Amino acid sequence: MRAAVSSDVVSVTAELVATRRAGEYQHLTFVAPGVAERARPGHFVALSVGGPTTAHLLRRCFSIHRVTPSGTYGGTVDVVVSAVGPGTRWITELRPHDTTGVIGPLGRPFPLPTEGVACVLVGGGYGSAPLFWLAEMLRERGCRVEMILGAATESRLFGVVEARRTADAVTICTDDGTAGRKGWVSEALPDMIDACGARVVYACGPMGMLSAVSSIAAAHGAVAQVAVEEAMACGVGVCMTCVLPVRDKHGTTRMVRSCVDGPVFRGDRVRWDAFADGLCTVPDDAHGATGMRAH
Amino acid sequence: MSTATDTSRPAADVELRVDLGAAPGRLTLDNPVMTASGCAANGPELHRFFDVRELGAFVTKTVMREPRSGRGTPRMAETPSGMLNSIGLQGPGIAAFVDTDLAWLAAHGARVLVSIAGGTGTEFAEVAATLAASEHVDSVIGVEVNISCPNVANRGQVFACDPGASARVMTLVREALPRDTPIIAKLSPDVTDIVDIASACLKAGASGLTMINTTLGMVVDLDRMRPQVAGVTGGLSGPAVRPIAVRAVWQVASAMREGRLPPAPIIGVGGIRTGRDALELIAVGATAVQVGTATFNDPMAPVRVRDELAEELARRGYASVRNAVGAALT
Predict the structure, then answer these.
(1) pLDDT digit string (tens) for A134-172?
(2) How much is the ipTM here?
(3) Which of A59, A230, A238 minimises the CB distance to B39?
(4) Is 3.20.20.70 the CATH classification of the domain at B11-70+89-215+238-329?
């Protein structure tokens, strides 16, 4: 495969070197030269599925769980995959030494505070994947890091052991009470922000959770930085499918691509009011909404 | 023309230059491979993966007069060897396009085929006129007219389904541009007789044709029991539609060869993923090709297809891509 010309992203054929079950998810490690060296927490990779003659043309995008820039095999990239359809199932069934295309790092990473402030990290399901690496970087900067992991049930939590190793305090929530406290992360979050005086809340998970986290953070004086989950076809900014309405710094709402303008956004900038029932509508006041009404 | 198999010929020996103007030499491209409108954004995104100057031409995302937010989401569904999309022609509007997007492409040395659209013939002409007045117009090698958009005056029926409406658009765009500007009509395959539409466009001032746009499709989300994309229906693209593109190009190129249509360059697009696929469209009469949905799978697909095409031609003993144009027409 040709090497990309840019210094900030590579497109490589990556070899799988390790794959293991993690609850209901699959945790995979690829040798992806050039990706690890450039990646930061919050970046994602776009994986091709099905081999060179595949009928599944669209890339599957996953936030990077962690990277090892110079391991035994060269730079490695870890992702956590939930087999929800034929493409993700193909990825979870890859065996060591199998290869697939990996493009990355993509997107904008989590912005890090310049001072050692307290932070709460919120992960829903396997959305927690990028947060442990983020936690390590925050602690290196002198930040206190508290973490909340939530899921419908225990087997859908990801990284509980890793959370206890990397965070200063960990709260676990499950909808059915099979692990930790029974309930949603949004019920545990307000007290956590107040108790540690968090200035930033980082979150990754389902859109409903991100919406709740954003409003709670705002109400408790913290900035929310959320990594959104939008379906992407390409991951590199050309297909225009992964858009969502986000206010820019002047207050104008624009339909922006989560792959190049995100996936991390300030929670108070996302127009959560546009999301309902698995759909996202274009707010009437969005830039270019008038143009759509003409035809 | 040689059809002997010569596997020893290196790819670099194949002449890839093609003429896109109606008369030879009027518009020469370094190679016949372009991006496809709506599959490449407007330059910077793919420039991270290859130099946009490597393309025969960069075809921009369709731009209309006003800024457009596009539709809500979901906007796409994966289909076997393809995808369904319903973006809604999201774009900055022509004024911001020439100031920002075209300026970037011009500064990076791209040769630009600008895709335009309108809800009325007048809007098409206004978009073309704004483009013609731009300080960056030197980078524009031509205008691709996307007539697969709803005609406000005809209850939203797409222009491309109506020979009269298609012809009116071409006439108005022709009047809005300098006489020597190539105008390429991009045709929809969703018509009763694509030769009729091609004929109407060429008679009204189009200098070439791009075939095909997406074909209308639909996917149902069975968990929610409703259409999967927010726009209900969408455009189907990808390798799944390639035989439709080959058929459409063959029909129109055959009509030209038989004298039923005036000769004009055809740009083949629809499901090209490899050099072999590109050669298939060239063999039925396309002078140049566009790589669209394959770019979502492989952002380097346009330049990879160019290199693979050279190899495919060399393997078959063609010294020039021009010699292969229409080679499979009977």
Answers:
(1) 999 999 999 999 999 999 999 999 999 999 999 999 999
(2) 0.94
(3) A238
(4) yes
